[in-house]
Amino acid sequence: MTDTTPPLFPPGDPQPDPPSATIRGQRFQPIWLIPIVAAIIAGYLAYTAIAQRGPVITLVFQTADGLKPGQTKVRHKAVDLGTVETIKLSEDLAHVEVEVRMQRDAESQLTDHARFWVVRPRLAAGNISGLDTLVSGSYIEMDPGPSAEMASATPQRRYLGLEDPPAVRSDEPGTSYVLTTKRVGGLSSGSPVLYRDINVGEVLNWELSPNGQDFTLAVFVRRPYDSFVHPGTHFWNASGISLELGANGVQLRVENLQAVLTGAVAFETPQEVLSMAPSAAGTSFVLYPDEQAAKVASYDKNLPFLTRFDGSVRGLAVGAPVEFYGIQIGSVTAVKLVFDPTGAESHVDVRYDLQPERILPFAAFDGVPALETSRNLVRRGMRAQLRTANLLTGQMFLALDFIPSAPPAEAAQLSDGTIVIPGTSGGLDNLSALVTAISAEVSKIPFAQIGADLESTLHGLSGMVNGPELKQSLVSLAATLREAQNLVQHLDDGSAPVMKKLPEIAQNLQLATQRTALLIQSAQDGYGAQSQTRRDLDRLIVQAADTARAVRLLADYLTQHPEALIQGRSAKATEK
């Protein structure tokens, strides 16, 4: 039996066409565009990354706090310039080395003028920075350096990173200066520089000089305030709170809160030097300890003087004022003891400088020899005298004054040009002399004799008080007082009826007064100057006068001719 395979298509059915040579699976599909585009983009990104790939630099820091490989960026003005690739410890384990892949467009900025530091949150006195890194994380900031110096810069690939941000960036306009001082006080990097209480700059850094005696500070003053710094400018330390108990009393100085916390440097420029050209970068200035010292240094002319004192100068310190008529014209520069082992010539040399520019008008003294002027003043009695400036602190100052009773003296000049002015005692010495004189006068008072006399007087007074005479007098006085009291009582009793009749008496007195007035008025009317009675009386008085005259003539005639009483008046007498 032969097996046969039945046909696939029965006979008589139409046969299908033979298969085409094109396979469906080999046709181009649109979805293939996705990997193609992705490959093109990846290639472009790879090419771009390779094209922008810059050099690798090494940054050395003390710690890698806040730095992460592949994440931490290097920035300048918020623009990414590179990325940290690796972080490793140095061979001596003293620091960390951070390798950073920089971009190609930043390669020209990688010179020896560039600076790098880590920006992280920092809190210092008066300064808070890096708060944005609390969210975004720490990053490395780059300062490429001044653009004007790029031509002379040298390419560099290894840098020592800064542990603290620089106070001044290279692109900030301004000028740097150098200050020298004996003490730094509260100054530090970042302390402000003040001009008339305005923050115009910062202290960059300070370092100790090789001799170990002075400090050098670098300060930066921003534009346009650097135009106020001239050769005559004076800088002083304005740090913290200044409390001074000196010859001028209690003085409290505070610049501002930031100066109290971080210290500050202040400067002032006299008006007369503002017309000069501003000081160049790197000019050196003296940093004075306070504003008063800076003001004293602003006087160009200083005349050295010396006065020797034989007594104590306790309370007189360097910097104490020298006054003339109560006005400061100088300051003490040195107080030294000149000791003689024998004790005969020991004294204290007080040196001081006088500034003629403090005296107005200065032109009247300009060019006048100081020695000649001093000699003339000393001949007139001018002396240097110590006086107490503050009784609370015992501070002393030097006063130039005219002493009327001063003995004759002469001003001299030393070989170094210092003028010697004679001195006289003053201050506590005068007070001690006055106390001594008062004590001497008090010692002359005979206190013993006064005490004896007082005792005798008291004894006599005691005898008189306790004697029988005083007791008898007191008894008599008491009796007299009793009698006076009885008399007053009797007068009081007797006056009672009279007091009751006083209203009636007053009424009768008033009536009598009225009647008297009427009587006077009636007399005035009847016998007044214009009344008839008055006229008749006047005529009667005239006639009486005539009669009296006739009687007087008759009496005179009878006196001369008494015989007329018998014979009568003769004819001869009649003719007369």
How would you describe the overall organization of this protein?
With 576 residues, the chain is of the alpha/beta class. The chain has four domains: 46-160, no CATH class; 174-297, no CATH class; 303-440, no CATH class; 532-565. The chain is built from eleven helices and 27 strands. The chain has helices at 33-52, 133-136, 257-262, 291-297, 370-379, 428-443, 447-466, 468-527, 532-560, 564-567, 571-575, and strands at 53-61, 73-76, 79-89, 96-103, 115-119, 122-124, 127-129, 139-143, 158-160, 174-181, 192-195, 198-208, 215-222, 234-237, 241-246, 249-254, 265-268, 284-288, 303-309, 321-324, 327-338, 347-354, 382-390, 395-402, 412-413, 419-420, 423-424. It has a nine-stranded mixed beta sheet, covered by helices on one side. Strands 5-8-2-3-4-1-9 form a seven-stranded mixed beta sheet. Strands 10-13-12-11-17-14-18 form a seven-stranded mixed beta barrel. A hairpin with a 2-residue loop joins β15 and β16 (249-254). It is elongated, with a radius of gyration of 62 Å. The termini are far apart.
Write the layout of secondary structure elements.
Blueprint: H1 33-52, E1 53-61, E2 73-76, E3 79-89, E4 96-103, E5 115-119, E6 122-124, E7 127-129, H2 133-136, E8 139-143, E9 158-160, E10 174-181, E11 192-195, E12 198-208, E13 215-222, E14 234-237, E15 241-246, E16 249-254, H3 257-262, E17 265-268, E18 284-288, H4 291-297, E19 303-309, E20 321-324, E21 327-338, E22 347-354, H5 370-379, E23 382-390, E24 395-402, E25 412-413, E26 419-420, E27 423-424, H6 428-443, H7 447-466, H8 468-527, H9 532-560, H10 564-567, H11 571-575
Parallel strand pairs: 1-9, 2-8, 10-18, 11-17, 14-18, 19-26, 20-24, 23-27
Antiparallel strand pairs: 1-4, 2-3, 3-4, 5-8, 6-7, 10-13, 11-12, 12-13, 14-17, 15-16, 19-22, 20-21, 21-22, 23-24, 25-26
